[in-house]
Amino acid sequence: DAKLRNRMRGEIRNLQRDLGITSVYVTHDQSEALAMSDKIVVMENAVISQEGRPTELYKQPANVFVADFIGDANIVEAKVIGIENGKAKVKIGKKQYSVAYKSEPELGETAKIMVRPEDISLQDEKVDGIKGLVKFALYQGSTNDYLIETDFGELRINDFTNKEILRERGTYVSLNFREDQIFLIR
């Protein structure tokens, strides 16, 4: 039962905190790991890929494996066109974004950026942005979930802002990334 499982996560987390105990919890359920941990260790082929606080792994993954393993991630190739004020200026098609990174990329490098489905806004196709075609649309109550085909591949979107408008399959749309939530992965 999904509701009972969520409640039990909270109960276990409270017990850990109230009793001040350290526990090791091994799971393949990423949402459980995010909800119940102070520190997460992500392993790939018996090697540690990254360890850190849940928010760090979610927002600043060390590599594509961690980005994709911890939550849903859209990975898009971008061209590095500059470094300015500790951020990389990247170009995706005609759009430019200033993005955070852990290790400084090289000018002209083709890099990968990660953007979470909830950090992409979806608008009418006439709005300036990355153009795409709705491949599927699912009404989820608190969100509308989409798969959008773009020139840069398929992007998953969780649209929390326009819940009352479900864009139909075959509809052309315009997408924009929340610049403060994009992260460059090397």
Structure notes:
- Helices cover 20% and strands 42% of the residues.
- The chain contains 4 helices and 12 strands.
- The strands form 3 sheets. A 5-stranded mixed beta barrel has the order 3-4-5-12-6. A 5-stranded antiparallel sheet has the order 7-11-8-9-10, with no helix packed on it.
- The chain is flat.
- The N and C termini lie far apart (39 Å).
Span of the ends, CA to CA:
39 Å
Strand tally? 12
Average pLDDT number: 92
Secondary-structure-derived class: alpha+beta
Biggest pleated-sheet summary = 5 strands, mixed, barrel
Strand order of the largest sheet: 3-4-5-12-6
Strand content: 35-45%
Helix content: 10-25%
Q: What overall geometry do the principal axes of the alpha carbons give? A: flat
Uncertain stretches of 5 or more adjacent residues:
none
Summarize the structure in short:
Helix content is 20%, strand content 42%. It is α+β, with helices and mostly antiparallel strands. The strands form 3 sheets. The protein has a 5-stranded mixed beta barrel with strand order 3-4-5-12-6. Strands 7-11-8-9-10 form a 5-stranded antiparallel sheet, with no helix packed on it.
Write the SSE topology.
Blueprint lengths: L1 H18 L10 H7 L3 E5 L2 E6 L1 H6 L4 H6 L4 E11 L2 E6 L2 E7 L8 E6 L4 E5 L5 E10 L4 E7 L2 E7 L12 E6 L5 E3 L1
Parallel strand pairs: 5-12
Antiparallel strand pairs: 1-2, 3-4, 3-6, 4-5, 6-12, 7-11, 8-9, 8-11, 9-10
